[in-house]
Write a structure and sequence with these properties.
Elements: H1 38-48, E1 55-56, E2 59-60, H2 63-79, H3 92-109, E3 116-118, E4 124-129, H4 136-151, E5 156-162, H5 163-166, E6 182-188, E7 192-195, E8 209-218, E9 221-229
Antiparallel strand pairs: 1-2, 3-4, 4-9, 5-6, 6-7, 8-9
Helix pairs in contact: 3-4
Domain Threonyl/alanyl tRNA synthetase SAD: 183-225
Cofactor: Zn(2+)
GO molecular function, one term: ATP binding
């Protein structure tokens, strides 16, 4: 393949000597150059035209390839499910413990999942609608069941599905009106499944010990306050 080449001016050292002669070659048609000096590269562009492919450290800088990668990344982003924005920075172990507590309350009392929760790293609280106040023994049993689920080292996984597919698996009555068309269903082993966009651990073994620190009951609502002990 023929190419255009040119000898660039040789550098003169401070002591008057000259370094070994090296060809600074610039070519079109994707032929490499060994031009590493910024001034040389600018001069080459001006001399041969802006379409000349300039190589740096033996690697061609291809702007078109850069744009192609960005476009491909954009296509991949568009193919991913579009979920609602999540504006809370939750502590994953505590938030996952909330899922287990909700599932335990539903299994034990048949009540809805908590519709009013305040989840923090140090301690959290959840409200549940119950016709009567649970006994001390029942509260203690709830704590034990949550810890039993944690001790099973259940995997926490996510899958995406439509509302139609999800309604036979989870309760969608808590979803906001502006919920995205695609839902993320978070499963904790065989113990719980819930539509959620929050942050979770990968395994219940990362949660720690679940401890109910206090509770009160008023106007048909039970409030449980709990924390995690590592």
């Amino acid at each position: 393949m023929s190419c255009l080449g040119r000898m660039l001016p040789q550098t003169i050292r401070m002591d008057g000597s000259r370094p070994p002669i090296r060809k600074k070659l610039v070519t079109n048609n994707y032929n490499p150059t060994f031009c590493r000096n910024r001034l040389y590269r600018l001069w080459i562009k001006l001399f041969y035209g802006p379409s000349t492919q300039v190589y740096r450290n033996s690697k061609r800088i291809n702007v078109h390839q850069k744009y192609k990668k960005e476009n491909n990344a954009q296509i991949i982003m568009e193919q991913q499910p579009q979920l609602n924005d999540h504006n809370k920075q939750e502590y994953p172990p505590m938030h996952t413990a909330e899922h287990l507590l909700n599932a335990t309350m539903v299994k034990t009392f048949g009540c809805p999942r908590s519709r009013n929760a305040h989840i923090e790293k140090k301690k959290s609280k959840c409200d549940y609608e119950l016709p009567t106040c649970p006994t001390e023994e029942q509260i203690h049993a709830i704590e034990e069941k949550v810890n039993e689920a944690i001790d099973r080292h259940l995997p926490v996984t996510c899958e995406f599905m439509t509302h139609e597919e999800a309604k036979s698996i989870v309760d969608l009555s808590k979803l906001p009106e502006n919920a995205s068309e695609t839902l993320r269903i978070v499963r904790i082993g065989d113990y719980d499944a819930c539509a959620c966009i929050g942050q979770h651990v990968e395994n219940t073994s990362e949660i720690g010990l679940f401890k109910i620190i206090s509770y009160d009951y008023a106007d048909g609502k039970l409030r449980l306050r709990f924390k995690l002990i590592k």
